[in-house]
Structure formats: structure tokens, C-alpha cells
Amino acid sequence: MLNRRSFSAALLSAFAAPFVNRAMAQTASDIRPAIDALPQLHAMIVQRGDDIVFAEAPRGPGLDRAANIKSCSKSIVALLAGNAIAQGDIAGVNATLGTVAPSIIPPDATPGVADLTIEDLLTLRAGLEGTSGPNYGAWVNSGNWVDFALRRPMIASPGERMIYSTGTTHVLGAALTVATGQSLLEQARSVLGRPLGIEIPPWTRDPQGFYFGGNEMALTPRAMLRIAVLMRDGGQFGGEQILSPDWIRASLRPRTRSPYSGLSYGYGWFLTDSGFVIARGYGGQIIAAHPERDLAVAITSDPNSPARSGGYFGQLMNLLEGPVLTSG
């Protein structure tokens, strides 16, 4: 039997439903032509408030199968770093690699790496020559990925400028493993997987057994969306505070700028002038949130095709800042 409150809620919902449905239809009609023109795009989900206003997978494995999120993994590792700090496993962003995880520093490491801070690693400002791009193959084929990264020459002062390098995030992931006593997989599942109700399957490990910190994680588009909602809502999900709101705020403060896209970069997340918070992965994998517009977005794309800032990634940004941001 309905009481007065439940009857009122049901009546309000009945009146609201046509408006919600019209808004969803309008959003779909705005977005669909744009994604039809992007043959590299596999799947896209858009959530406004609590409502999924667009969810389609015109290509690829679909909305419920895990996709390689590539360098969006860097943003996930950054969230795990924030949790390790909140739990007291790491003293703070100014803690140095030499105090957090001295065991991972090789005897012949580049002078100064012990003094690199967690913030230097989070913001890709370690100053070390990168392991991405032309150095990537030699790095992942080496016998020790952490050692290889920490033996790169210093080409900038730590904390000075962004040098995009997956090796830097891999060192951070190894440091988190040592500091917490848990693998990145265990951390990801306990910090994000169980609280968000998402599955996080095992992914690539290096020759020493450290999970790849900065690449190769796999999530379904729906799982990616839940992380976007977490970022949008200040670390909350489903009414629960999953991550420290202070860490989320700190993550969204610009610390440096990408020399490639020109986007600002916080603690593992790209930041746009329009207000989007973005995790970006090779091929066009995107986890995006826009707190002011109450938006959360997940996009997966062909993981084997490039997505340069002046090419496909630029087209995805036009999609986010055009039909997604302005519709509804």
C-alpha cells in the first residue's frame, strides 16, 4: 500500500519521466551524428546527474566487456596514491622515493632519483628521460622496468616540467606496492573495485612481478563511467565517500602542462579550460567528468590506432566540448 510520501514520489516521477525521456532523446540526437563520423570510436556512455542519457557501442566489444584503457591507467594509479596517503602508508606528496621505497632504487640509479617526490612522479615531472615514444620498446623488453626507468639521464630538474613517461608512473606504482604491502591489483580492487561494484581483472606485470603502473589495465565502459562519476562527485559514489575529497580537489589543481596537447595536468588527470577532468589513453580511451555540468563520460576506441591531439583525440575533445557539453 502506498503511503502519502511514496504516492507523492511516484506521482512526481510519473510527471518527470516524459521530460527526462525527451532530454535523453535530444542528447542522443545531438551525439549520434558526431560519433557516426568517428569510425575509430567503439563505445560511449554519458551520464548527467543520475541519468544515463546516452549509451551506445556502434563498434567494438560493447558496453559490458573489458577494454584496454591504456594510459587512463595512470589516472587510476594516481587515485591509489591518494588513498595510500590518506591511509598513512605514505606521509604525503612531498615524501621522497628514497624514504617510501628505497628497495626499488638500483645501485647505479641516476643521481638524484632518491630525492624524487611522490608529487614529481604523479605530475610526470621526474626530470628523467622518458620511456614512452621511441624508448618504449627498449624499456618493456628490458629485464627490469623500474631499474631501466631510474637509470634514464636527467634532462630537466625534478618538478620543473612535464616529461610524458609511462616509466615514471610505473615507478610510482612499484613504490605504492612497497609502501602498502599490496599489489596494484589488490589496491585497485579494494580501493575502487569493491566500493564501486566494478570488476578489475589482472593485467600485465613486469619481470619483477610489479603490475604495470601506467598502461594495460582493462575496464568495461560502464566501469569507466563509475570512475568518472567518482571524480565528478568529489570522491563520492552511491552516497558513500570512497576517496578523500581533499585528494580529489588537490588532483584537479593544475600543476604542469602537457607539451603535446597543451592541457593542464594535475595529479594524474588532464584538465581543460572548459572544466573537464580527463583520463586519456592511447587510441582514444577517455574517462571524463565535468563537475559543474554534472556530467560523467566514458569513451572507448580502437586501441591499436593513434589518437593525436591534432587528430582523433582533438575530434573527441570537440565531441565532449560540443554536443556532450551543450546538449540537454
From TrEMBL:
<dbReference type="Pfam" id="PF00144">
    <property type="entry name" value="Beta-lactamase"/>
</dbReference>
<dbReference type="InterPro" id="IPR001466">
    <property type="entry name" value="Beta-lactam-related"/>
</dbReference>
<dbReference type="InterPro" id="IPR012338">
    <property type="entry name" value="Beta-lactam/transpept-like"/>
</dbReference>
<feature type="domain" description="Beta-lactamase-related">
    <location>
        <begin position="43"/>
        <end position="307"/>
    </location>
</feature>
<protein>
    <submittedName>
        <fullName>CubicO group peptidase, beta-lactamase class C family</fullName>
    </submittedName>
</protein>
<dbReference type="InterPro" id="IPR050789">
    <property type="entry name" value="Diverse_Enzym_Activities"/>
</dbReference>
<keyword id="KW-0732">Signal</keyword>
<feature type="signal peptide">
    <location>
        <begin position="1"/>
        <end position="25"/>
    </location>
</feature>
